[in-house]
Amino acid sequence: MKTFKKFLGGLLLLAIIVLFLVVWTAMPWQGVVVLAVLLAVWMATTRRGRQTWQVTRVGLSTVTQRLGSSSVVVVGIAGVVGVLVAMLAMSEGFAETLRASGNDHTAIVLRGGSQAELNSVLDRDSANVVMQAPGVKKGPEGRPIASGELVVVANLPRKGDPNSDSNVPIRGVSDDVWALRDNVKIIAGRKFTPGLRELIVGKGAEGQFAGLEVGKSIRLAGQAWTVVGEFESHDALESELWGDTKSVASAYRRGSSVASVTVLLDSPQAFDQFKASLAADPRLKVDVSTTQAYFSKQSEALTKTLRIVGITVGIIMAIGAVFGALNTMFAAIQARAREIATLRAIGFRGVPVVVSVLLETMLLALLGGVIGAGLVWIIFHHYTASTLGANFSQVVFQLQVGPALLWTGLKWALAIGFIGGLFPALRAARVPVTTALREL
Amino acid sequence: MKYFHLIWAALFRRKARTFFTLISILAAFLLFGMLDATRKAFDSGDSVIGVDRLITTSRYSIITSLPVSLETQMKAIPGVKDVGYSNWFGGIYQDPKNFVLSFAVSDNYFDIYHEIQLSPEQRKAYETTRTGAIVGEALAKRFGWKVGDKIPLQSTIFPQRNGDKTWPFDIVGIYTAAPGAANGTDQQFFFHHKYFEDANAFQSIGTTVGWYALRLNSANDADRVAKAVDALSANSDHETKTQTEQAFNASFAKQIGDIGLIVSAIMGAVFFTLILLTGNTMAQAVRERTSELAVLKTIGFSSHSVLYMVLAESVLLLVIGGVLGLLLAGAFVPIVAKGSGGMLNLPPVGSQTWILGLVLMLVIGAIVGALPAIRAMRLNIVDALAGR
Description:
The complex is a heterodimer. Chain A has 14 helices and twelve strands. Chain A is α+β, with helices and mostly antiparallel strands. In chain A, the strands form two sheets. In chain A, strands 1, 2, 3, 4, 5, 6, 7, 8, 9 and 10 form a ten-stranded mixed sheet that branches. A two-stranded antiparallel sheet of chain A has the order 11-12. By secondary structure, chain B is α+β, with helices and mostly antiparallel strands. Chain B is built from 14 helices and 13 strands. In chain B, β4 (91-92) and β5 (99-105) form a beta hairpin. The relative contact order of chain B is 0.19.
């Protein structure tokens, strides 16, 4: 009967933890603030609450004497939160960079089945058909606003590592690109002159790869090209070098073909009409998507992988940290066993003891979470990294440690603190007073 | 060793605490095993099999192809045993998610890449089948392909002459990778360059190749031959860059991002936490047992025996947790690799990981045990027994 009761008790505890985790993960920050306020009100107004506050104060005042073991909780949880936030920041930053590269009022057309611009070829005639399709916005002279573009890849060394080779994308763009991509701003030098071997470089590419300063000359396909300007766009395009389509095509012997056509739509609603008309055209076999869909899709696989890796690593580390916290808190209540027993002997009930141990653990956990998330924020917020993207070339992106991520990290920390504190708390409240008083 | 039962008993003096510490250690080494596998997956440049190979690519970019005329010139360079070539096909099977590492290769390619092991009959069948393809063991398993299967592979780059982007292939052989081959070797798909040239809509494919692979008589010639090869096309419109296969692979790994750095950072965080956790447990254990250790000394154990016993206890704790963690990692890695749908190509936890892991267990065990052990050694019997 006794074992059965114990078993039921264990089951109940497990249910409480699962319930807590489910509710906790779903809770927005407002909910947590409300909870904290309720707790504070309870502690200030009721007798039990005031008792809890007294017990907690005693516990907290002795933390400094247990610095070694308390720091285990703090550092362990800081590690979990740090790793988790850093991995998610990477995933987030990459996704955000590509998401920002597209919008819903421009569309991109590639050869059917190409998936990326590097694999795509459209001949001049097809490109013209695409530009004349209904739904494309016309400029003041009645010409459609569209840019036939070409993406090639060049080998350039990384800054500070002359022997490394990175695939840097070079985009040949037409005049209309300035109307199509109005977020692109020249921040140094000037635009390239069509017909000449001139390039402008993205700010991200300039930061990562050697020899791209304005005024420098680089060799592409055996010819010398001059860097005449630098641009900023806050998206994946910043990883690129831009030149005139015709000049790039002639250097890489692409004739009059282009890789993709990007068009400005009359309105986001015009996309369906544009897509339908191209699909119905027997002369064409093309894939049409909004630039938003096209760029977002490119980040999907990597973002997902980073998220999965981050959360898996986080969970494994969290398990380690929970047991570290358990160890510490069991030791802490062990050390305070007599004191807690005395409190209970003079009339303090179980609830204040349980809550105060839980509170202490969660405060330590919160401190750990703040340290972990804070360190990641200091080190990695806006940290620039690059990786191989869909075009088989480097995409430069920045890690984003936003408030949402910091909040996720803190939530994890508090959840670990809750689980790590619950068992020792119950133990402290359950040990028979006489046994505890006799111990030591 | 004769005190083993004593150490063992000390270790489980407080079962709950030891159990919790063990799980923390287990978690840390589980992570270590998995992260090491990930690091290896991105670091395929350390295979010793390819030391006698050079890769020649265009100096300008990875997508620029090279003229076929270079082949005979390269063969004439002293020290070159054989020259093969290859072209990227960009194949996908049925769904864009099922990316297949596929290459159109010259007929002598399997003599150059001798770690690709194919039975003589299958090699023969490959040579006599125009649309024949040979695939790696792991790749065949992934899609359930068997010898004799006819499969369509869609190229993301090359349409056939009739405009169709789906190329039919006959699987005529399934190869295994020789031990020590680079990670991922058994994930590839090879077919005849001739078929590729003939059926391709791009006529220029007949006069160019993607890149060359050179096999040398001796790895010592690598520098000299690489310079000679690059000299062939110096100042032309198709300048080349020749490097050892390792360097070529390493530059690829680098492009994916500094995975190595990220992984070491994570491992650093994990181990720092681990040392702190275990060190704290050991310190607690020794503090609690002060009077017991004093009794041991009283009945004649030397200070050094006490030191070694405490150290052994800490090392034992780490080894038990660490070995369990690595075993778990061994079970976990294939599941993760499978779950990623072939995107993460994780090698199993190998002997290198085990050796490194064991060394880490011993070293960390010694480090975290050191302070409590020294304290135990210096214990003054009278003070300890009096509880001062």
